[in-house]
Amino acid sequence: MTRALDLHASLLTLDSHIDIPWPDREDAFDDTTRRRVDFPKMARGGLSAGCFAAYIPQGPLTALGHAEAEQRTEAMLDAIGGMAGTRNGLTAVICQSADEIERAHARGDLAVIPAIENGYGIGEDPGRLALYRAQGARYMTLTHNGHNALADAAIPRRDLGDAPTLHGGLSTLGRQAIAAMNRLGLLVDVSHAARTTMMQAVEHSATPIVATHSCVRTLCDHPRNLDDAQIDALAASGGLIQITAMPGFLRPRPTDGERTVGVADFVDHIDYVVRRVGVAHVGISSDFDGGGAIMGWRDAGESASLTEELVRRGYDDSEIAAFWGGNFLRLLRQAEHVASGAHSAS
Question: Where are the transmembrane segments (predicted)?
């Protein structure tokens, strides 16, 4: 697979969802067994860029719960911002635009794109989104597991008293938050969102939506995955599903409990989306350090194995470049364009 490795080395490769350890250990420049993604592994695996997420676990919908979530969001975005620098022969930069990501790649620097996982982090105040955007965030996942003040989640939290639904999809606050995200250039991420939430987000967002770490429900019947109608709606909006390396989202668990999920299973999901809606609407994410890892792609250092499998399936260089980052950069630019228009109008 010499051609695949040469191609991989030439690509701008972007992983759209990576978690960070918390509390922060300031070890991003260290090659450590404690992380599936650190900068040495990115360099070794030819991974150019990563969206590093401030993950906010769902808690109670109370003033105290919201205040704690807001504080954690700020602190985690600060920690992600603090990952920039030069050590051990590597340079990492915080990138807030598609152009900055491309310039970092051209220089040979690693690109860090901050993100937020769970709209719980804004409490009940969409005004906080401007603060988070100023800290570099480029997308926010509307929910995690458990309903929040913005929207219903795909997986309710019974331990938090969740009923199957809370708002019937988006709340009024959720629609306000999406409008604010559009004005700021924050992509709307519908991974973890209930089907109703996702379909309503397509209708309400002025920019295409993205599922930054989800898979195909037809291939694996998991509530976190998108069904055919959702994939169709996402594509019609110009949006994107980023297939993720979570074993339980890629292949059902057999009755005997034994399961080995690998890179071929991952690319099966890419194949399915391509056949249904085209190359422009699918990309790649790992959910590393948040539970993601499969045979052949156990950490960022093994990222080239995906390119090898894509070449083996017959995809050409331009298609593989689209999967590995081109499609995601297109969405970032569309969000930037809408935000620029909103600022000009104001």
Answer: none
Evaluate whether residue 127 is within a structural domain. Answer: yes
Domain that holds residue 176: 2-340
Using alpha carbons, list the distances in angstroms from residue 261 to 118, 247, 252, 298, 320.
27, 6, 10, 11, 21
Q: Is residue 346 part of a domain?
A: no
In a domain, 345, yes or no: no
Integer Cα distance of 109 and 251 in angstroms: 35
**One pLDDT digit (tens) per residue for the chain, 346 residues:** 799 999 999 999 999 999 999 999 999 999 999 999 999 999 999 999 999 999 999 999 999 999 999 999 999 999 999 999 999 999 999 999 999 999 999 999 999 999 999 999 999 999 999 999 999 999 999 999 999 999 999 999 999 999 999 999 999 999 999 999 999 999 999 999 999 999 999 999 999 999 999 999 999 999 999 999 999 999 999 999 999 999 999 999 776 666 789 999 999 999 999 999 999 999 999 999 999 999 999 999 999 999 999 999 999 999 999 999 999 999 999 999 999 987 777 6
CATH for 217: 3.20.20.140
Number of domains forming the structure of the chain: 1
CA 310 to chain centre: 20
- In a domain, residue 95? The reply is yes
**Rounded Cα distance, 213 and 340, in Å:** 27
